[in-house]
Amino acid sequence: MVLKLYYDLLSQPSRSLYILLKLSKIPFEQCLVSLAKGEQLTKEFAETKSIFQKIPFIHDGDFRLNESVAIVRYLSRQYTLDDKWYPKESKKQAKADEFLEWNHSNVRLNCSTYFIVKWRNPLISGKQPSEDRIKSLTKYMEKSLTDFENIFLTNGPYILGDNLSYVDIHAACEIEQTRVAGYDARNYSPKIKNWIEHVRSECNPVYDEAHKFINKLASMHGEENKSKL
């Protein structure tokens, strides 16, 4: 049976796994889950798809697995995943894992929180956050972006050095998300801008395919801002 990926391209880790599977040419069935419709929140979904009721996740025959990082590690063992995406050599793999573990409570936490408070919550509730709240979230997010730049983009054009890997795709998808809420990290840091453009270039056309909806939402936000001028 072919591997099934359950995903929504509005989700950052969904995009990173989608890009990886496409580029690595691992055959997979695309199983779309609409976050906007709350398809993952039903009792039937929890019973038949994923008890976590979150995406992305995979079904590989009778085997089910959640969490994007766990999925990548599984793919590296179970399938012919090129070593460049997730290194097999112990020390290189440890450095990849170092970033993936650090990312949870830094870039992902702060970029996601900014996106949720600035864009998603107002979309649902119709209520805008206070200016002070946004300033505070921006401060924490930019601290994470500065740490990311100073810690992980110092040994070459990519996180692990000279070569693109899955951790770059994973990080770029997280950082791209804030564009929907009107914040583009490319404008915050020239180094981050250069790195994202390298990742995009090496992963295209799949990268742009995965970010088509994000790009559309970001463009809509830009048009809304222009209309207020």
Automatic annotation (TrEMBL):
Flavoprotein: present as a keyword of the record? no
What are the transmembrane regions? Answer: none
A Pfam family recorded for this sequence: GST_C_3
Q: Name the Gene Ontology biological process terms.
A: glutathione metabolic process
| Keywords tagged on the record | Cytoplasm, Transferase
Coiled-coil stretches noted in the UniProt entry, renumbered to this chain: none
| GO CC annotation | cytoplasm
Residue ranges occupied by any GST C-terminal domain in the UniProt entry: 89-229
**Which stretch is the leader sequence?**
none
The primary site where this protein sits is: cytoplasm
An example Gene Ontology molecular-function term: glutathione transferase activity
Catalyzed reactions per annotation: RX + glutathione = an S-substituted glutathione + a halide anion + H(+)
Superkingdom to which the source organism belongs = Eukaryota
Against InterPro entries, the record matches this protein to: Glutathione-S-Trfase_C-like (IPR010987), Glutathione-S-Trfase_C_sf (IPR036282), Glutathione_S-Trfase (IPR040079), Glutathione_S-Trfase_N (IPR004045), GST_C (IPR004046), GST_C_Theta (IPR040077), GST_N_Theta (IPR040075), GST_Theta (IPR051369)
GST N-terminal domain location: 1-83
Question: What subcellular locations does the record give?
Answer: Cytoplasm
CDD domains reported for this sequence: GST_C_Theta, GST_N_Theta
Q: Which family does it belong to?
A: Belongs to the GST superfamily. Theta family.
Q: Would you tell me the protein name for this molecule? A: Glutathione S-transferase
- The species is Phyllotreta striolata (Striped flea beetle)
